[in-house]
Amino acid sequence: MAPIDILIVDDEPHIRRTLAFLLKKSGYNVETAEDGAEGIEKAQALTPKLIFLDIMMPKKDGYEVCQSLRSTETLKEAYIVLLTAKGQTLDVEHGLAQGANECLTKPYRPMDILSRAKQVFQR
Amino acid sequence: MHSPTRQLIQAMQEIIDGQFPEPVETDSTDEIGELAGKFNEMVQILVQREASAQQQAEQLREINRELIQAKQSQVEFLSDVSHELRTPLTSIRSFCDLLLMFGDDDPETREEFLESIIESCDRLTNLINDVLDSSKMQAGKMGWNAKRIDLIEIIDSSVRVMTGMVQEKGLEIVNQFSAQSFIVEGDRDRLVQVVTNLINNAVKFTSTGQITISAEHAHQRVKVSVADTGKGIAPEHQDMIFERFIQVTSQESGKPAGTGLGLAICREIVEHHGGEIWVDSELGRGSTFFFTLPVLPDDESNDEV
To answer: Which residues in chain A touch residue B254, judged by CB atoms under 8 angstroms apart?
Structure first.
């Protein structure tokens, strides 16, 4: 399968819809996944450069997904942004320890999202 | 054998050392004998007081444990609530941002986004109502409006509220009542809330088939059941779902819509009315939710009907 730019993994349909809409409008090639298991599957198949990853999800949570992505050779360099609804320092530290590049707290601003994308795709 | 006076002195020393002495034995009928008798009585009273003080201390420790636990669950509740609030807020915020940025591009998308905002607002409203209900009930501050009412009327009202949603999913509601009326004493609106909630859950988790609502007498009680032909609940989840913010996710449907407080509120309401609520289910074979309420004698009801 052809590689994509960005993968969004979140169980909330509204979050998937708005993030995907925003990033597609900005010209990126975007795919979405509804839960952790699908997230891992799609990430491995589509090797995105940037992944927005929700933490609290059914089946596999964001931490587990993160760990599993980092153990995949083709995804070691992917930029992973964890999306957390709690914004507690504990979550952030735990996320970074599992291999995420950074954490964004919901509600985030569209500019936060777009600036991450710009940063990643300029490299 | 020591003299009675010596025995008394020894016994007193034992008390000073924190022990309870054996009764002082003496055949003396004089004042020393009387003293020994009174002393023995006194020791017995001390023993009783000590025992009851220890019992009270244990009770206090138990209450303290419960308070700490209650405090802890309150903190968890707040953290759960804030998480649940943040999710629809994030949606609203994101849709508004997108409307500001791209609102003029395409009327269809604009309409979709506005509808999603309304949906998220409704979700927030429901959540806030449920949180208020739930905390009032937990704190025993809920105002209850108890009246003699017919449970059949409650069920009919609830079914009417849910008709739209039931038809939309192409399901059917079947009633099976073993009597004309079941008179209970209770808060009408709250009992409608229970039945509506159970029907709502049944509809939510059922894609084809029917929802059967039955009511029958069972030992001075009425037993109501709401049975669906949905996907069922795994045994390990059947008790959990009555806890606050415990929602069972599944492979097919993912995260269920709802506040995660519905069944906890149902349980509070049913238990307040002196009843019980439980579920009987098997994965893939549907779920049946039951609740019972004490029934009043039927004599006056016939005049009213």
So the answer is: 11, 34-35, 58
Number of Cβ pairs closer than 8 Å across A and B? 65
Condensed to tens digits (0 to 9), the pLDDT of residues B222-281 reads: 999 999 998 888 888 888 888 877 776 654 445 556 777 889 999 999 999 999 999 999
Note the ipTM here.
0.88
**What's this model's pTM, rounded to 2 decimal places?**
0.69
The DSSP element (H or E) to which B176 belongs, if any, is strand B172-177
Q: Element (H or E) spanning B248, and its range? A: none
Query: From CA A66, how far away is CA A23, in angstroms rounded?
Result: 21
Phi-psi region of A79 (alpha: psi -120 to 50; beta: other; left: phi over 0): beta
Among candidates A25, A34, A56 on the partner chain, residue whose Cβ is nearest the Cβ of B254: A34
Nearest chain A residue to B87 by CA distance is: A85
CA dihedral defined by A79, A84, A88, A93, rounded to 10 degrees?
-30
The three-class DSSP label of residue A104 is strand
H helices present in B103-176, as ranges: 107-138, 151-168
Q: What is the distance, to the nearest Å, from the Cα of residue B282 to the centroid of all Cα atoms in its chain?
A: 23
Q: What parts of chain B have a pLDDT lower than 50?
A: 251-253, 301-305
Q: How many CB atoms lie within 10 A of CB A123?
A: 7
How far from B305 is each of B152, B190, B213, B301, CA to CA, in Å?
12, 22, 22, 6
CA distance B1 to B108: 107
Tell me which residue in A15, A59, A85 faces B83 most closely, judged by beta carbons: A85
The tokens describing A22, both together, are 């925003």
3-state helix, strand, coil in chain A (%, to 5): 45, 20, 35
The tokens of B55 are what? 């019992």
